[in-house]
Amino acid sequence: MSWKKLKLLGRGSYGTVSLATPLTDYYTLFAAVKSAEDNRSSSLRVEGQILHALRGSDYVIKCFGEDVSIENGKKTYNLLLEYAAGGTLHDLIHKSKTVLGESEAAYYAFQILVGICHVHRKGFIHCDLKPAYILVFPGGQHGLANVKLADFGLSLRSETNTCWDTSVKKCRRRRGTLLYAAPESVVCGIQDKAVDIWAFGCILVEMLTRKRVWSECKNKNELKLKIAHEKLEIPDKISNDAKDFLSKCLDRDHNSRWNAEMLLNHSFITNYVNKKMIHELIQRPFGDAGLKTLVSLEHLFTTTSFYYPHNSYLRESSSIITSLPETNNNNATGDEPLLWMNFRNLHI
């Protein structure tokens, strides 16, 4: 199946994200394409390999394939990903008119924890969890959205329970977003599975209050000092269960901090997300949404607005990875305008 880029959705340190759709008229589907110039694509390629290794979870963003194209005369590496029509958890938290209730926050927390469990069991640490990197998909169970972990560009392989981020020790640079960084990461450069749990706790505080942790800090130096030396205050106006749950996530001692599996059995989760709902979420997280697990079925544009100029060319082709058997496209001549891309399976 060949895809075309429709519109630029955003930019990041890795490159760009574009909205894409198949060229065929048989489908009304949308997906996201992450792109970077080939000579600057190392982190994006690593992310593609990590997503390939993490396949199999409904709470981790799916990657359907990779492609190399020529865009504006430059060799470009592309990843085809699920498109989240609901935006990000950051949008859900801060664009809502009201604070999320504890039951809704627990529902999203459950899904995030299941995703973290999967990542950790596969031997990875995300290292940069934050609301902007958790994507929202409409059409979940009980009228609520579903969420998935995304943006694994800074993730590390953890062969043991704890690893040292040598780049931090050598360069004195933090890994990930400082606001959600754990004390041991800031002070010692330690990157273990517990840093993801600390970040998750910060995210939950944000869900329950619509306020970011350490919001009183005026600059990065002050923020680093507070993370390194002060206890993060747990909000007052939440239930005792929620307070206790957060205390397990935000324990300054990373060796005592609860792991994701332990947190899933905490009463804050089990009181709001009952066994029947948990079973439904694990077995059929998107209900009968069908292709919504891949892309949004909504019509986002009345006309197609191509981001890339028509004098650019796609010079390499292969096959897309989907649930269908892999097929090869050997008919590309290199003379087609840059409206389409074919994606191949990720081989590691």
Automatic annotation (TrEMBL):
Binding-site residues for ATP, renumbered to this chain: K34
Keyword Transferase: no
Record-linked InterPro entries: Kinase-like_dom_sf (IPR011009), Plant_MAPKKK (IPR052751), Prot_kinase_dom (IPR000719), Protein_kinase_ATP_BS (IPR017441)
Pfam families assigned: Pkinase
Coiled coil: none
Molecular function per GO: ATP binding; protein kinase activity
Keyword Coiled coil found: no
The Protein kinase domain, residue ranges: 3-269
GO biological process: signal transduction
Keyword entries, A-Z: ATP-binding, Nucleotide-binding
Protein name: Protein kinase
UniProt organism field: Solanum tuberosum
Taxonomic placement: Eukaryota, Viridiplantae, Streptophyta, Embryophyta, Tracheophyta
Gene field: LOC102602374
